[in-house]
Amino acid sequence: MTFLDLLRIVGEEPVFETGLLLAGPVNAADVRRQLSRWTASGKVIMLRRGLYALAPPFRAAVPHPFLVSNRLVPASYVSLQSALSYHGMIPEAVPVTTSVTTGRPGTRYAGDETFLYRHVSAALLFGYAGEDVGRGRKALVALPEKAILDLVHLTPGGDRPEALAGLRLQELDRLDRARLLSMAARWPGGKVRRAAQAVLRLADGEGEEHETR
Q1: Closest listed residue to residue 63, CA positions, set 8, 157, 133, 129
Q2: CA angle 198, 182, 148 (to 5 degrees)
Q3: Burial class of 179 by CB neighbour count within 10 A (0 to 12, 13 to 18, 19+)
Q4: What digits encode the pLDDT tens for the residues 105-141?
Q5: If DSSP codes are grouped into helix, strand and coil, which group holds residue 46?
Q6: Each residue's pLDDT tens digit, 6-34
Q7: Sign of the C-alpha dihedral, residues 101, 105, 109, 113?
């Protein structure tokens, strides 16, 4: 396989797996050797074993960090501050992409990007949707209601008023109140349910503030 063959096969895919290159009558050992050479020469970036992206100037598109995050760790979706920033629910940009997964927690590095993974039980792996991240590609991202609840769940004392105020949540009128409460009811214990009620009180206060302006 030549590098031109690689470019033809990968096309506009922002990230690709080794399996994409092994279809048809090819020598698997040769493909892996070539990938190692292209990675060493800087033409290809290895995101993890078996997952790659073309390096500039050869790639057709910059891989979106949310898409990379999904592909780095299967059974994961972007959540917490990353999802809240994406949805415009907090004012800050977030430099690290944070996801939740049923797998092991930890930090991964791919290229110049940092990806943080937090563990949740399989019962809490819900409340996300495919979001368009460009060129017809979709990444799994928590709905805003679920991102808030995930953050509360994974933060010690996350249901305390000062912790919720510290999030500086905004655009709370966009929340689906029924969905927030329905999601919160799926957690055991009262922490997340208390937080959901507190968030709705914050939303009511935000609405009253807007009305007086």
Answers
A1: 133
A2: 50
A3: middle
A4: 999 999 889 999 999 999 999 999 999 998 889 999 9
A5: strand
A6: 999 999 999 999 999 998 888 999 999 99
A7: positive
